[in-house]
Amino acid sequence: MxxxxxxxxxxxxxxxxxxxxxxxxxxxxxxxxxxxxPVELSNVPDIEDIESMARMLEHVGVSVHRHDxxxxxxxxxxxxxxxxxxxxxxxMRGSFLLLGAxxxxxxxxxxAKPGGDDIGMRRxxxxxxxxRLMGVEVEERADSFVARARRLRGARIDLDxxxxxxxxxxxxxxxxxxxxxxxxxxxxxxxxxxxxxxxxGMGAHISGxxxxxxxxxxxxxxxxxxxxxxxxxxxxxxxxxxxxxxTGGDVVVDHMRPxxxxxxxxxxxxxxxxxxxxxxxVRVQGRRLRAxxxxxxxxxxxxxxxxxxxxxxxxxxxxxxxVSEALYENRFRHVPELRKMGARIAVEGRSAVIxxxxxxxxxxxxxxxxxxxxxxxxxxxxxxxxxxxxxxYHLDRGYEDMDVKLRRLGAVCERTGTDEPGSPxxxxxxxxxx
Length: 434
Hints:
Shape: elongated
Distance between the termini: 20 Å
Number of domains: 2
Radius of gyration: 21 Å
CATH class of the largest domain: Alpha Beta
Largest sheet: 4 strands, mixed
Number of helices: 15
Number of strands: 24
CATH superfamily of the largest domain: Enolpyruvate transferase domain
Helix content: 25-40%
């Protein structure tokens, strides 16, 4: 088992470069199925979930070549299989992105019910109903979804709630449908925009991305290859902004888009920090913190993927804050571990009531998912003494070289133990696994 040992109490300073976005790369990789020509990707993050998606694509017949740690070449000249079994899909929810792409390319798909972090119900009815409106026959079985379509046709799809993966799945199906598809109440996250940018580079006609109404003019045929640079990871950027605030540090978060995290910048300012935006960076200087309430919401609201980290920050703030989770009912799995470190947090339904500031102390904690792991790292950086975090694998799924980047900012941390492929740990976390 691999651990991260963190010695708390250090003020972090310096520059931290932000990697490519995991949540943008996964759908772009799935989109390589929409053409029989090569798709060249750059700025791909070097993380575990990318490797998992590559294995799934290879399974269905995509030729995958890694030029270096950040550049990949995907070539789906043929589709050898339209089935993705549980041994692959259980590792992450991103496996479900293959449904729309495979149906659009091959006319059928069988995807085992996906895994991913256990943060609550993330139902897929809207994905499936949207595909049905486009002419797809979808059957839900005990352990999988099976979809078939002789041809795809454009449709009007009204989503009950903005769903990122649902919007991405429907966009990928729509670009090869015949006629116009309108997706109403569409997700507006930066990675949805990035997928659309890639699809347009492949010859698709898409408008309205970034608004609640996306219009796709399907041509009914194959797209062509493209070269695409993945957008930067605004969730990683937000995590390091919170790291700077929590440690009273002075950190420039570089190679990112400040507009994508403005809602976080405003909350950090309200909490007492100094936040200065540049053209492609944000500088955060930590100050004495005061309690601030947040409620998660679809973009451009406060991101659910930064809720655990912000909650860890609020343990160091003066007063009582309420952190509410509107999207997922099980996104407080880090709270018992924070309590072990001395945090005063009461969970009431979908809200965590946090009283601070609380002196935290180092202890042994267990990471349950990617963002909970980031929250525990933030708490460990604030704590007195040494914290040992088990199941480092989760952090590696979503953050590229987190321990290296933290050390460059002045943190005292190191990896210990091993986490070899195929180990019992890796088998277990694949099931729990964002």
